[in-house]
Design goal:
The structure is a homodimer of 248-residue chains. With 248 residues, chain A is α+β, with helices and mostly antiparallel strands. Chain A has one domain: Glutaredoxin (3-Layer(aba) Sandwich). Chain A is built from ten helices and nine strands. In chain A, the strands form three sheets. Chain A has a four-stranded mixed beta sheet with strand order 2-1-5-6, sandwiched between helices. The two termini of chain A are 42 Å apart. At the A-B interface, helix 1, helix 2, helix 3, strand 6 and helix 9 of A face helix 1, helix 2, helix 3, strand 6 and helix 9 of B. Strand 7 of chain A pairs parallel with strand 6 of chain B. Chains A, B: This is Protein-disulfide isomerase. Chains A, B: One of its GO terms (molecular function) is isomerase activity. Chains A, B: It comes from Mangrovactinospora gilvigrisea.
Amino acid sequence: MRVEIWSDINCPFCYLGKARFEAALARFPHRDAVEVVHRSFELDPSLGEDDHGQVVPIIARKYGISEAQAAANERGIGAQAAEMGLPYVTEGRDYGSSFGMHRLLHFARGKGREEQLLDLLYRANFGEEAPLFGDTERVVALAVEAGLDASDARAVLADPERFGDAVRAEEREAAELGATGVPFFVLDRKYGVSGAQPPEAFTQALTQAWGDRPAPLTALGDPDAAESEAVCGPDGCAVPGAVKDAGA
Amino acid sequence: MRVEIWSDINCPFCYLGKARFEAALARFPHRDAVEVVHRSFELDPSLGEDDHGQVVPIIARKYGISEAQAAANERGIGAQAAEMGLPYVTEGRDYGSSFGMHRLLHFARGKGREEQLLDLLYRANFGEEAPLFGDTERVVALAVEAGLDASDARAVLADPERFGDAVRAEEREAAELGATGVPFFVLDRKYGVSGAQPPEAFTQALTQAWGDRPAPLTALGDPDAAESEAVCGPDGCAVPGAVKDAGA
């Protein structure tokens, strides 16, 4: 069974939702048969590399609420994070373009280090005072902590072409699947769960999707194709009418 | 609807099967709703960069058949290619490691040029006399013909780390889906078609998979999550209990 999770480093409910999903997964009896795949989503793809800063004034300006309200929202999210045992700096977090981090996550995926890097990026952005956006060397240090090579990470971050199309392709896929916000959980491309719902909701979704998981592929066409039709395998090409292994 | 095609540049039936599938797709009434994705498969992943040469003696030695038999097989495949109007040099084709070409195809995928490059690689390997394997500059020239930048292509071919994990991940996926040879066609991860079957078999498979295509995602959890639960979207984060847009 495969669970895909669309999320953004800028999204506090993605940070919480990941922990809530993982709490449900840890108790799920078939957890070892569940493959979790992370997918890219930017809350604001129009942000440039240099558009970053403290979240409270940015959010207040962007959505037309007072800074007091934006700060109250942050404290509300912080209280929810505390319930999950997650650190949350309610006055310090940054907001900015996550495009480079998503590209780096794709690079990390190829090295089997995406999960580690994602957790470290969340922790750094939501749980630590130091700003994350705009500080390439801090991101590089997290990449190293996740097991990547510093110069590799620097090279990926410096070149927007690296994994840029991969990030955008996943963002398009989210839209095609009907996601308008994140976190967005997709189970076997059949069920969708939107938001940082309580662990019980994820338990229910995992249970339902497991009961309804895809069957093995159904073979169509000539069922004896591998013998009688035109297939190449590690033992050569099965040519119809030819004696493949004569003389072996 | 999505059709994934696992194939190898070394596999003549992949070359034929692609043309047969495309003939069926061109006549399929819902062809514009079919997304075709190419996947990597190596008939012989153990080959090194320098293990290449004329196919007839290599195949004869590898599978313990006489060179006359191997040559007869090639002529049999050539006759099938001719029926599809595909050029096939029955005595000249090369056999070698396709790992670098698969990596380059992944790079081309990100540039929207994979299909073009795959067709050119097939055409060069099966339809032209000049050897393809071991001639990096010939592969680079095909990449340029496909619309890629020569220095980009050279850089990808020179570094086995570039897209190496992506190639191997798709090869693992083929094994997980039960493929033992190629071409291997997977329709919506539900139906599998093995081999270069006749166009009618692909027409039948497309029709069946279309009739049975996946429904949109079923929402699980709190259906009003976007309003009442914790989601971040382009308009900010919906915080339960908070008045998000007061003051707007």
